[in-house]
Structure prediction request, 331 residues.
Amino acid sequence: MLRGTRPTAALAASVVLAGALSACGSETPGTGLEFADRLDAVDISGDVGDAKVEFTRRMEAGELESETLVEGTGEELADEDKVFVNYVLGNGYTQQATLDSVGDDATPIEVTVGADENAEPATLDDVLRNLLRDHVEAGVTRGTRIVLTGSTEAMFGGLSQSPALATEGIGNEDGLVLVADIMDVTVLEGPEGTPGKQPVWAPKLVFNGNGPTSFDFAGIPAPAAKDPLLKAVLKKGEGKTVGEGDLLVLDYLGSLHDAAKPFDESYSKEPIQAPAGSFVEGFNEAVAGQTVGSRILIRIPPAKGYGKEGQGETIPAGSTLYFVVDILAAV
Prediction:
């Protein structure tokens, strides 16, 4: 409901991996240097979560092999744990970092420990989850860096001849390296932090169970279309500050003024995941710079919401939007 255009890494969403290549290798020329075996051809640096891959020679690799470069100091993973993985996929033939989830225009993927293989992967995220399911497993610790090397066929199997991979300069016989960083991030169950004050412009929260279910607008005058964007911190978290390019895990509830029920909410379902900056303008502005663990109230004027068009049947044109948002994680 409240999402805008979601920025993604190339190939990270809405790309069906199917079809065949006619070439056996990448058409992109390398530097002409001699080949070297697996990690002998590449330097991997950077902190966990911010990996950097630099090739010193063309890399060749056959069967899939796994190596732990950094042993994490976080908790051991257990089946059904959900973890976030930042990755860099390097092509040893072109000697380029072809795809990654590091930076402002990409987000990590979530992997469920012990999950069954996705038999019909539709996106690169799905493919990578399948690839990592045998390596991001119970007993591995958070903060660990795992490196996989192998040919395109060894990594991607029947998808190795996909035009989608060819678009990224990956030939079906290239040697690849995948650096997978298991982030030491835990999703909070709710807001945690120092309580703040209820602002006079904001409705009170109505609770029924574990989270807010609606707003109480009693005594709150109807907003004018030209009123400014307002935000208030009801609870100040002590976690990471939300930054550009972060993948956010949020609980939220949105309502119009004096509405009997919200137009959308996540408290009765599951928290949502979306990149910072992928919501409507006013929501993006209010969340930017906040800290994990915080609960914030937001009043968004039409110009920074859905404007003159509105949204579907639930948000008429010219609507002011009210939100309560819990920031549960930022990766």
